[in-house]
Design goal:
This protein has helices at about 15-30, 50-60, 80-95, 110-115, 130-150; strands spanning about 1-10, 40-45, 70-75, 100-105, 120. The protein has about 160 residues and is an alpha/beta fold. It has a single domain (about 1-150), classed as SPOUT methyltransferase, trefoil knot domain (Alpha/beta knot), CATH 3.40.1280.10. It has a five-stranded parallel sheet, sandwiched between helices. β3, α3 (about 80-95) and β4 (about 100-105) form a beta-alpha-beta unit.
């Protein structure tokens, strides 16, 4: 199952970019033998889309049609890392070809995008900057691949 991250905003050089690149490279490398990956990032230039409806349209265009869709939103469901890994594995085992993760812009997501998601996911009660949310998502995707591979990376 190919994995996609569609996010409003561009990460330029810096520590966040380095972390996202590192975790996505690791996730692709460790996930391929498990049928997960590659992981592809799609950045939506916030200067070219204005308003929640335009952002939602651009985000949906960035994902393959028929992809399972996970929307990151503060009103979403919290999963622990093993639960997240199990969800990805179940989608893969059910024959899903693609899973897409959506990170909206500063003003949040258009409600229809959130309502049509397979999962609305929250990284806790606190609100996170978009750059850090992308780093956290990349790390959790990598962690999921290591959990499914039985690697010691994830310790409780």
């Amino acid at each position: 199952m190919r994995l996609h991250i569609a996010a409003v905003g561009r990460l330029r050089g810096g520590p966040e970019r380095a972390l996202v690149d590192d975790y996505l490279t690791r996730a692709t490398r460790s996930g391929r033998p498990l049928g997960l990956g590659p992981v592809t990032e799609h950045q939506i230039d916030e200067r070219k889309v204005t308003g929640a409806a335009a952002e939602a349209e651009a985000l949906m265009r960035a994902l393959p049609q028929g992809a399972r869709r996970v929307v990151l939103d503060e009103r979403g469901r919290e999963l622990d890392s093993p639960g997240f890994a199990a969800l990805l594995a179940s989608w893969r085992d059910d024959g899903a070809q693609d899973a897409g993760f959506v990170i909206g812009g500063a003003d949040g997501l258009e409600p229809g995008l959130r309502d049509g998601a397979d999962l609305v996911l929250c990284f806790g009660a606190m609100v996170w900057p978009h750059m850090l949310a992308r780093v956290m998502l990349a790390e959790q995707i990598y962690r999921a691949t290591t959990i499914l591979a039985g690697s010691p990376y994830h310790r409780r």
